[in-house]
Amino acid sequence: MNLNLKNKVVIITGASSGIGAASALAFAREGASVVVADVQIARGEELVSRIQAEDGKAVFIKCDVSLESDVKNMVAKTVEKFGHLNCAFNNAGVEGDSANTMMCSNENWDKIMNINLKGVWLCMKYQIPEMLKNGGGSIVNCSSVAGIVGFSGSPAYTASKHGVIGLTQAAALEFAVKKIRVNAICPGIIQTPMIERFTHGEAEVTKMLMEGEPAGRMGLPEEIAQAALWLCSDASSFVTGHPLVVDGGWVAR
Ligand code: NAP
Q1: Does residue 191's CB lie within 6 angstroms of at least one atom of ligand 1?
Q2: List of residues 6+ apart from 142 with CB closer than 8 A
Q3: d(Cα 113, Cα 111) in Å, to the nearest integer?
Q4: Rounded to two decimals, what is the model's pTM?
Q5: Active site residues
Q6: 144: Cβ below 6 Å to ligand 1?
Q7: Is the beta carbon of 92 within 6 A of some atom in ligand 1?
Q8: What is the atom index within ligand 1 of the atom nearest the CA of 189?
Q9: Among the atoms of ligand 1, which is closest to the Cα of residue 66?
Q10: Is any atom of ligand 1 closer than 6 Å to the C-beta of 142?
Q11: Which atom number of ligand 1 is nearest to the Cα of residue 193?
């Protein structure tokens, strides 16, 4: 399979940690020039140094995806640095506080929606015009298995991730003829700092989570990175508007 991304420029948001960081490394190893975008500066710059130490190409750009000015600047700086934009993995997201529909605070709702859903829309809003200039591109948006089924105690997170799939499919339809493919990835339970915050490192909570996992283990961030790579590469050239579930069988139960 040809996953070669030489001469491709990719923006990865939320790239200082977890799935984003594993993806930045994987894209760089396939030859892409990688924009590591995140709110966490030190971790992001450290990752860029690691990629460069492997002879990869990467730059860090600070970007809060919920702020339009940051997103606009991220895309402009990418083109300034690397000349064009071919791919994007709009991965940044937060889990927010756990609280049921009745107890979810307005602040929690707004924060989750602004980062997880509005952030993805803002990214596409500024990435698509640059891709149109190149005659096409590939965008991957990060949803979740919570974009496919409901998660009790996480109404805003569930709604935001369902929204990401809708947004992905609308954009896919709008730009298919212009050769911009737009897909979503729906990770299952993946071993990242987000999941560690959720389980608080407690063995009992982790065990409970694992009981619902047919594969009997958590996924690795690298396994999501491989899916993002495939969706950004020409190997998936006829795939668009698709929510790709990568979950060890979790939603198939
Ligand atoms: P993670 O380890 O917490 O990494 C997320 C990164 O995004 C962090 O560096 C975080 O910074 C950053 N970020 C937060 N808000 C941001 C903003 N407004 N703008 C830019 N960057 C921001 O999480 P992860 O598990 O890798 O999650 C990545 C994506 O996968 C998320 O969209 C998540 O919803 C999705 N997902 C994860 C799982 C899972 O099991 N891990 C399952 C399904 C879907 P801070 O550290 O400051 O927050």
Answers
A1: no
A2: 14, 19, 89, 90, 91, 92, 93, 120, 164, 184, 185, 187
A3: 6
A4: 0.98
A5: 157
A6: yes
A7: yes
A8: 40
A9: 18
A10: yes
A11: 2
Structure tokens given for 20: 């984003």
User: What would the pLDDT profile of 203-231 be if each residue is shown by its tens digit?
Assistant: 888 888 888 899 999 999 999 999 999 99
Which candidate, 190, 187, 189, 181, places its Cα nearest to that of 242? 181
Name the residue with the closest Cα to ligand 1, atom 45: 40
Cα 7 to averaged position of ligand 1 atoms, centre (Å): 27
The closest residue, in CA terms, to atom 44 on ligand 1 is 144
Which residues is 182 bridged to in the sheet? 139
Q: What is the pLDDT of residues 26-77, one digit of tens each?
A: 999 999 999 999 999 999 999 999 999 999 999 999 999 999 999 999 999 9
CA of 21 to the centre of ligand 1 (A): 10
Residues in a beta bridge with 12: 36, 89
CA distance 228 to 141: 9
Q: How many angstroms separate the Cα of 249 from the Cα of each of 22, 184, 216?
A: 22, 17, 10
Centroid of ligand 1 to alpha carbon of 91 (angstroms)? 7
Tokens of 216: 């009997």
Residue-range domains of the chain with CATH? 9-192+221-246 (3.40.50.720)
Short-list 210, 221, 197, CA closest to 249: 210
Sign of CA dihedral 156, 161, 165, 171: positive
Angstrom distance (rounded) from CA 153 to CA 158: 9
**CA 100 – CA 168 distance, rounded (Å):** 26
Angstrom distance (rounded) from CA 136 to CA 44: 28
